[in-house]
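Troubleshooting: if your tokenizer reports a length mismatch, compare your output against this known-good record of 163 residues.
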Amino acid sequence: MTQAHCATCGRLLDEHNRHVRFTAPEPVLTVPSEDRQALTWGNDVLMQVQGVGAFVRILVPIKLTGGYTMTYGAWLGVHPDDLRRAWEVWRTPEYAELRLHGLLANILPSWGSASYGKPVETAVLDVDHVPYAVNSPDEFMRRVLQDQWPDDMVLHPTTPDPR
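Known-good structure output:
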């Protein structure tokens, strides 16, 4: 059986729909690992770290040429009140209406530090998933979310991989 290759970069097409999951928000990585557990409330989707901030897991879909998508499982820095609201509705019908505004708390590899800390708006597009980044009031970040990007630039960035 032969596998299909991308006409643009020559790589296998199944490499083009990727999912990369950041383990923690960047600010949390500055806390010594031996101290994190004692300072952290939450889990892999809702987290608050004492002295650092409140975070909600989000999906950041990046449109690639050829109709593919690179999706980052990233973190959004939010106000503690928004974290509490998210926690209260997470497993209820109201979750479908959850909208969050915050700052991207991870560095997207293809855009480096230019993506970190940018304002992002999220919405629940599928109740079986965490919220998706859908827009940004920041022009640069809005382009990252809405434009289509060369697959090679996103799939093989020159900046470090997410932690």
